[in-house]
Specification:
4 strands, 243 residues, binds zinc ion, rod-shaped, mainly alpha, single chain, 2 domains, 4-stranded mixed sheet
Length: 243
């Protein structure tokens, strides 16, 4: 019975470790998503900055073209003879100047927007460095924990093999089958007449038999193998079993 209890303890601890181990990759996945979100934001800001730069360059080119046309229009103006042609040339110059003024306003607007965006971009770049460093730290920490868990699991597994070799093969089979079908718990302590796994009462007569401890008994409710939890012999081996 003592070995069986120890075996159950191993199995519970192995199950707990496996649950924790399964958490590791999930945590890493969440970290990666967080980093990717910050990287996406940075990329988006960088794309917008590029778009503004292109637009600004284009506006500057257009201003230059208009300036060239204005020079030509001025030369034309000085060679004009008729009043009608003169009026038309003046109107052309007026239109060109208006177009230039609009483009200049646009260029200023773009530059102002770029300034704000560049400040954001600088902050984002700092943030991404921090996020990357934090990612490395957290990632390494998780890997370290996983490695430690794996080492613990190895030790317990070895211990379990030793215990299982010491248990009667039929009893081991029965225990393993119960454990498989009963949420990982095949052996349960009974304290003050209550099975500590299914939390139901054991009939008093059966509990008395259990306290005497001269035969292998099972819980009449959950069918797990039971032992008297207050038995001095088992007290140190007793496990806190939860289904
Ligand atoms: Zn029970």
């Amino acid at each position: 019975m003592k070995i069986l209890i120890a075996l159950q303890d191993c199995d519970i601890r192995m199950r707990d470790i496996q649950i924790k181990e399964a958490e590791g990759p999930k945590k890493i996945h969440r970290l990666k998503e967080k980093l990717a979100a910050v990287e996406d934001q940075l990329k988006e800001e960088s794309n917008r900055l590029e778009a503004y730069t292109r637009e600004r360059r284009q506006a500057e080119q257009e201003i230059e073209e208009i300036e060239n046309r204005l020079k030509k229009a001025d030369i034309k103006l000085s060679n004009i003879k008729s009043n009608k042609e003169y009026q038309a040339a003046l109107k052309e110059i007026d239109d060109l100047k208006r177009g230039k003024s609009l483009l200049e306003d646009r260029a200023i607007d773009i530059m102002e927007q770029m300034e704000a965006l560049e400040a954001n971009y600088a902050t984002s770049r700092e943030k991404i460095e921090e996020t990357r460093q934090q990612f490395e730290l957290d990632h390494n920490e998780i890997l370290k924990i996983l490695k430690a868990l794996n080492q613990d699991l190895d030790k317990i597994e070895k211990k379990r093999i030793r215990f299982s070799q010491a248990v009667d093969p039929d009893l081991l089979k029965r225990y393993d089958s119960l454990r498989t079908h009963k949420g990982g718990i095949g052996v349960s302590p009974v304290i003050k007449g209550v099975c500590q796994t299914c939390h139901l009462d054991i009939p008093p007569q059966e509990f008395n038999e259990l306290v005497r401890g001269d035969k292998l008994m099972t819980c009449p409710n959950c069918t797990r193998i039971i032992y008297w939890g207050d038995d001095e012999r088992y007290k140190n081996n007793r496990v806190a079993s939860q289904p």
